[in-house]
């Protein structure tokens, strides 16, 4: 009897762990059955041919999170919210379709703000949202451990240049730390260069333009307003400061096209800002210029299931330190208008007071870290996913993202983005060209399938078989369209 009981027990365990689900439609690498495995691991059989695969499972995380996903599976199971705690789909977080109302992350050093930023960035990438993430202190590069295909941009190396005239006199004057009268002189120089056709792509071009305006100061004053020799000298010294700070490689012919950052869903672009942030005002000018280009080039989209693009700006206080009322109003207007273009803006700073109230009002979601709450805990205020109203403050514990637990040797080599051709700053961006191409191919196949099938049936061919093949190809291109780079 004991031997029979032990055999029955083993049979029940085998049946419980090796039970095969009934055949059903599966996408990608969904599991068919699971069986027992060594402690700390689980094993599952893939529906593809081959031996069972053993996956390492992080404690507290579902084993399905470690399984590879096909692109179609990721599209059909995309997260509906940016989770900021445990609990799967019921975890507290920010609804994905409301992230275009922008978010503000605050917290002192060591309270968990970087973990929150990495977690948000990782989940946005998995949801298929392209992201631009400036890395000020060098700690955000850990995102490359868990997100494949991370691209690094280093504007200080000259690999991704921006034309100087595209900054405008206001942002460039802020980078040079000019006063309002001195910035007005710089604006006159910009207007003179625009009328005369003088190039303003580099700092050397600006230095040459200042010298010519100084030589023609009387004529320029008659046409554009009074130009002080003292103000011109101050602007020249501002150019010298930028050159001595190593900022000359930033300015050049337009080689950084913002459209290249959104050519793949889920693409993460790290902006190496460790050297750029040594001049906080220059860092703020570069970030504000990128924000303006997003507003200028992205078409209107309206509400959607997920953002089209996300821009996370760490150390956001550098954007607004000693900023004038005109610049604050323009920044607030830009943040408000890019909502309808599907752009999510995530600002991060140490204190909420670092961000002016006129700009902070545009951030519907707030994640506040504080030492009083404890390390790794934060207070979340966001919008309800059903009604869209503000929720009550809730204490959340953001989970350490996968990039925070991966070994250091798992960091892939990151390369500079190729500078292919000068960008046209006036050209609108089609933010999802791969989806447009897939829809066109699917429509052509759907139209061609019945026509070819009927023709082959009339002529005595295998029309039904070819109809099925073309219909299947149409479904593939519709739900899993081709994308650049894979």
Can you characterise this structure?
By secondary structure, this protein is an alpha/beta fold. It is built from 15 helices and 14 strands. It has four domains: 2-68, no CATH class; 81-158 and 254-410, P-loop containing nucleotide triphosphate hydrolases (Rossmann fold, 3-Layer(aba) Sandwich), CATH 3.40.50; 164-250; 433-479. Helix content is 38%, strand content 13%. The strands form three sheets. The chain has a nine-stranded mixed beta sheet, with helices on both faces. The longest helix is centred in the C-terminal third of the chain and has 26 residues, at 433-458. It is globular, with a radius of gyration of 28 Å. It starts with a helix and ends in a 7-residue tail after the last helix.
List keywords for this structure.
486 residues, alpha/beta, Rossmann fold, nine-stranded mixed sheet, disordered C terminus
CATH architecture group name of the largest domain: 3-Layer(aba) Sandwich
How is the CATH topology of the largest domain named?
Rossmann fold
Which sequence of strands runs across the widest sheet?
8-9-7-10-11-6-12-13-14
Note the run of SSEs as H and E: HEEEHEEEHEEHHHHHEHEHHEHEEEHHH
**CATH level-4 homologous superfamily of the largest domain:** P-loop containing nucleotide triphosphate hydrolases
Major β-sheet profile: 9 strands, mixed
Rg, Cα atoms, Å: 28 Å
Low-confidence stretches: 11-37, 41-78, 407-423, 481-486
Number of strands: 14
How far do the termini sit from each other? 60 Å
**Number of discrete domains:** 4
Biased composition (Basic residues): 33-47
Domain Helicase HerA-like C-terminal: 94-164, 166-370
Transmembrane segments: 439-458, 464-480
Organism: Gemmobacter lutimaris
